[in-house]
Amino acid sequence: MKNYIKADEWNIIEEGFDPHLNKISESLFSIGNGRIGQRANFEEAYTGETLQGNYVAGVYYPDKTRVGWWKNGYPEYFAKVLNATNWIGIDIDIDGEKLDLFKCEVLEFKRVLNMKEGTLSRTFTARLSSGKVVKVDAIRFCSIADDELAALHYSISALNFEGIITVTSFIDGDIKNQDANYDEKFWNEVAQHQENDTDYLTLQTKKTEFDVCTASRTTVLFNGVAQSSQAVLGDKYLARTTVIPVKQGETIHIYKIVTNLSSLNYDKSDLLRLAKVKIETASTKGFDELLKDHAAAWAAKWEESDIIVEGDIAAQQAIRFNIFQLNQTYTGKDARLNIGPKGFTGEKYGGSTYWDTEAYCIPFYLSTAPEEVAKNLLVYRYKHLDKAIENAEKLGFKNGAALYPMVTMNGEECHNEWEITFEEIHRNGAIAFAIFNYIRYTGDENYLAQYGLEVLIGIARFWKQRVNWSEDKQKYVMLGVTGPNEYENNINNNWYTNKLAAWCLKYTIEAADMVKRLDPEKYKTIQKKTKLVEAKEFGDWKTVADQMYYPYHEKEGVFLQQDGFMDKEQILVKDLPAEERPLNQKWSWDRILRSGFIKQADVLQGMYFFEDEYDLETLRKNFSFYESRTVHESSLSPCVHSILAAKLSDEEKAYEFYLRTARLDLDDYNNDTEDGLHITSMAGTWMSIVEGFAGMRVCNGQLCFNPFLPKAWDSFSFSIGFRGVQLKVKISSKQIWIINNSVQTLEISIFNRLHTVLPGEKAITYHEQLV
Ligand code: BGC
Predict the structure, then answer these.
(1) Given CB 3.0 to 4.6 Å as the disulfide criterion, which of 21, 181, 558, 614 pairs with 66?
(2) Which helix (H) or strand (E) is 59 found in, with range?
(3) Reduced to 3 DSSP states, what percent helix, strand and coil does the chain have, rounded to the nearest 5?
(4) Residue 495 marked ligand-binding
(5) Is 600 annotated as a binding residue?
């Protein structure tokens, strides 16, 4: 665990430069706008440890699968969002010596991620080996007001010398993914062009043939006068060099305005023309105006999604960091995009879509963004339905059964470890649950007729075919699966998967009834399109759901994670020596699989989804049994535990679990922040506060709260949107305030008692409430 980030409510601050921490900071200080994003690499050269990272959402390469033992059904490739053209480059040469912080004496250094305005800035002074001291101030952003724009301002001052500073501003597309399976480069150059101080570089991804045109206009100002430059062209590289004699105390200002357009959105033949138009318009506005637009757009985002914690700066910083990163990663403007577990902050997980989106991210976007944003995440899966059906067919399923991929970019499976690719099928259930969750929250029942029902039918058909009848048990069973707990593979009757499958089957029948009622014509169209044999299929689904087998342990009084779980040695995490953790780094895989330690919420994930079905006593027993065996080696784990602990009124535990996700990356708990941030689990942090501490749920179409205040805090408040109403909720130890910023009156339940909240403010004192 590291502890070098300074506490601050709105900023992430690093002071002093330690090259050993550089890759961690590159992840932490990442910036993005949902379409483009990048790690916090330096503009000038750096020869120390670094992971250069620039990404364009949706632009990927199918990297040929690399496995030891090929199994039929494996996908041919793993899709990767590619490391793309580096547009920030500015080489600085001072009388023949390159500015490189790895080689200089760094006298002062400060890096700041301003989360309020969405900027990354850096200031430092450094002494070169010649003894010359320079000061640099740099600030940049990926505009959230216009997601195809980015800009930077870099200034360098000669502090103790007179000499020649040569500035080479460049864009470089000769980039490699560190995680390339066969050490290949993934881009071909299409065109280079230079015009009016602007460099244009168009690259094309191999195989997928996405074109991306990066245009960069550089302006170098010295004593207020624009300097002329010399063009340099190289392989996938365009630059312009400016040579400036400076005196002590003088400063050179470099501005770069950049656009990134891709063939995902435009005709390839039009990219250059559009880039020229865009760069002209942006340059006319200029850096300061672009920054103003960007900051205003961030202010609007914060208005919808901020959480304010009073009395605990570290907690305040952490939750804002999580919200900031989520908003940078996905804006919901484009239904073809999704949320990679590392967002734009690293290469791990290939930038692809996992079940994380449906199980963890949907609630955050439902409450903090317009309805379309979460809807687009669901539509993304609707658009992949045909591929999910194909995917199931490849594995031998029939009749329109759909198996959504474990990992995907375009709907095709690209995961290739059999015990996950073929067996971690619970992801199908999370996709169905997200549809339910969306409708429960928004009340948008039409979604089912529009998109949802077709997806549900495909999923229901899959479950029906995936179970088999056990003569012995006289029940339907599900063999050879991997549950969310990936420290068990190829098990039988994972309680969570069986539960989810049965629920999906029933929910699909309900959903069909609802569409039949609301839109009979559309229902007929869906019936025809999916070739639904209603009586037979519904009958089968109901039978399977009613007769599903659920492992249970009488003596412990708990749902059993899987058949045979109690045959394992029953040791608890508290008895595990600290030096043996994390297990995935200290133990062999064989030992992990044989042990009873649990990677992440599994039975408890099911109890979280279907909480209304279980009384508190059942939850308590299962929580205490499973939590004591869980090592939380997936960042997705603690949030579910935090929410359930809150429900069980175990406030201390709820807070303890919250702390484990909130600063996971900021403090580098798992020693892996340098690979990128844990974006999807950041949504879990938000859930811990809103669903955990505030106890927010939607019950019968109304918001309900069962709040408590963590002891370390004076109060906390959050913004949420609910069915067209924008609310602020503030919770202190004595009161809950609801500010209804709409003209509608709302009925809200607090501690199970209904309150009418008129437009304006409403404060409810807990003890009045309890009377
Ligand atoms: C977790 C999965 C998760 C994946 C991506 C794994 O470590 O076990 O549940 O989908 O990470 O976040």
Answers:
(1) 181
(2) strand 54-64
(3) 35, 25, 35
(4) no
(5) yes
